[in-house]
């Protein structure tokens, strides 16, 4: 067995075999599901700190900082799921809001990714200072980077 | 409008309003979807480096290190999705493999989470040294922590 020869235990292999898509040879549906999952996880962490920023939930500085760090750690991840053949009307049959014009504007799309990553990193850093007003202001900047990209590249 | 008073821009609010579940008041289906998404994202990054470890894909030290770091960053995230009322047969009607015995063994479940987080952090660190054999060995240890938990708490 090749698996045994490589030094991976049978136990570990059993786990690996249960894992899903590989990025190296991802099917369109896997890439779409991946990026949607990544955005979902980002939303899970962003939403409660946005609620704090809006005043709907009491500001919890530690919780804000923890979730802001998670958002920053996640910010680089969704983008590798945006690959050719995975956009709207690409014939994959999967429900996605990602417009095909993404493929026509790679530089702009990449810049918008970078803006989001940069502002999210700043948010994580600022949140560690545990000041509500500066944290709220920076969260708003992150939100704007989301909107900037959605306005151009996400279906209504 | 309360939203305007808090200093969040209308643009940012528009984004926030499109976000989904809040962790603070998550419905069972949101928590289940969240943790499944988090595991899916972990699998997306773990699977290709496992393929390298198995010899199915050529070892790319930079790529291995990048994905190992992502796995380490993600390792702390799924667990907050495991809350009361979200396990199998809890009446939520969502398809989940998470066994209800998780709720009966919180200390053991938490220890298994910690084991996974610890080994994933070690993997990210070791992967930076860009040595195939040590990286492969540590990846196997991470895989074992997955299996240890799945054996006890995940349905077949």
UniProtKB/TrEMBL annotation, chains A, B:
Keywords: Electron transport, Heme, Iron, Metal-binding, Signal, Transport
Entry-linked InterPro entries: Cyt_c/b562, Cyt_c_II, Cyt_c_prime
SUPFAM superfamilies: Cytochromes (SSF47175)
Origin: domain of life: Bacteria
Pfam families: Cytochrom_C_2
Record field: transmembrane: none
Signal peptide: 1-25
Record protein name field: Cytochrome c
Organism encoding this protein: Halomonas cibimaris
